[in-house]
Design goal:
By secondary structure, the chain is of the alpha+beta class. The chain has helices at 2-8, 16-28, 30-37, 84-88, 90-99; strands at 46-53, 57-64, 78-81.
């Protein structure tokens, strides 16, 4: 929750509406203070996508795009292989490249 709170306030760092509850949470909760001090940022938005690769077939990817600034600003999109079958396939992605030449 601390990481989601940090992501939510990214565009409003100077605003007292964010500073007051942050100060209160840090003062009353050692758990929140420890989590806040890790400087993690997490967006609540996460989903799965399936893509089809011509060489290895379908891959299931976990997709997240946490905002690194205001929601109209930059964001970082990450994809991770989301299941065992998909994690086993990247090695096959190298096969066509090694057969060329």
């Amino acid at each position: 929750m601390a990481a989601e709170f940090r992501a939510s306030m990214a565009g409003y760092l100077a605003g007292p509406a964010w500073k007051v509850p942050l100060k209160r949470l840090r003062s009353v909760s050692p758990e929140f203070r420890a989590a806040w001090d890790r400087h993690e940022v997490v967006s609540a938005r996460s989903e799965r996508q399936q893509v089809r690769n011509a060489h290895v077939g379908p891959l299931t990817l976990g997709h997240t795009d946490p905002w690194v600034g205001p929601h109209t600003g930059p964001r970082m999109v990450t994809y991770v292989l989301a299941d065992e079958e998909s994690r086993a396939r990247p090695e096959r992605l190298q096969e066509p490249a090694s057969r060329t030449g």
